[in-house]
Amino acid sequence: MNENLFTSFSTPTLMGLPIIIMIIAFPALLYPTSNRLISNRIRTLQQYLINLILKQMMAIHSPKGRTWSLMLMSLIIFIASTNLLGLLPHTFTPTTQLSINLGLAIPLWAGAVILGFRYKFKTSVSHFLPQGTPILLIPMLIIIETISLFIQPMALAVRLTANITAGHLLMHLIGAATLALFSISTSTALITFIILLLLTMLEFAVALIQAYVFTLLVSLYLHDNT
Amino acid sequence: MAGPEADSQFQFTGIKKYFNSYTLTGRMNCVLATYGGIALLVLYFKLRPKKTPAVKAS
């Protein structure tokens, strides 16, 4: 039972070869591309949704921050589609792996922070001391703000990993419980099945929300530094 | 952060002109001074001579 519970999080292999790169690249195949200005319905719907997210997310940014639009849109679409595909049975979800989430979070956070220090050094450094701090609290608060800065990429990565992994684990457990209870007590199995359905609906929402939160936080770090 | 900070709206004198928690420059100087202080502390503890106990004659 324990062996079955965690095998879905192990790196997938096909005949001994790791296929994780193919799995990460796979969601891109689901989005059709075209070299026409106005294409078919699917492409129009895709463009409409991306424009909606783009306008909402990049409205607060300066022109310098808006140069990151492509990066942030790719990020949200990648995380959202990876999370949603992971809700299908027997699929592998790359965002359950801390390594992948750290690989997303650290470069993006570091890019925003380095941009801030490079072009607006005084403003970036003065972020470590909130305005109006009492004199006695100044050194302590600077240390606390420095620590909170360096925790940001870790929090980004771990938040996504934990949310998706926990959701998948719960679905596994409740699904197994439903199956086990079916032969013992059908009414209890029915209640557990309803719980599973509600959980699955929650996981759909979590998949999209976590993608949005990740991208929003990266965009906020960027906004602070541009 | 409450809007663009105009350093000129605050008139400090003496050391407060350079180290305060209101103006951008003041905040920057406080932060850099704190980091400098921590760096000096670390350097001091690293470089101070280690006291070796005197060898007792048997």
TrEMBL record, chain A:
Reactions catalysed, as given in the entry: H(+)(in) = H(+)(out)
Top-rank taxon, per record: Eukaryota
Keyword Transport: yes
Annotated organism of origin: Echinops telfairi (Lesser hedgehog tenrec)
Signal peptide feature range: none
Keywords for the protein's UniProt record, in alphabetical order: ATP synthesis, CF(0), Hydrogen ion transport, Ion transport, Membrane, Mitochondrion, Mitochondrion inner membrane, Transmembrane, Transmembrane helix, Transport
Topology with respect to the bilayer: Multi-pass membrane protein
Gene: ATPase6
InterPro entries: ATP_synth_F0_asu (IPR000568), ATP_synth_F0_asu_AS (IPR023011), ATP_synth_F0_asu_bact/mt (IPR045083), F0_ATP_A_sf (IPR035908)
Family: Belongs to the ATPase A chain family.
Protein name: ATP synthase subunit a
From TrEMBL, chain B:
Subcellular location: Mitochondrion membrane
Major subcellular site: mitochondrion
Transmembrane spans: 26-45
Membrane topology of the entry: Single-pass membrane protein
Keyword ATP-binding listed: no
Keyword Transmembrane: yes
Signal sequence region: none
InterPro entries tied to this protein: ATPMK
Short name of any one Pfam family annotated for the protein: ATP_synth_reg
Keyword tags: Membrane, Mitochondrion, Transmembrane, Transmembrane helix
Name under which the protein is recorded: ATP synthase membrane subunit K, mitochondrial
Organism of derivation: Echinops telfairi (Lesser hedgehog tenrec)
Lineage: Eukaryota, Metazoa, Chordata, Craniata, Vertebrata
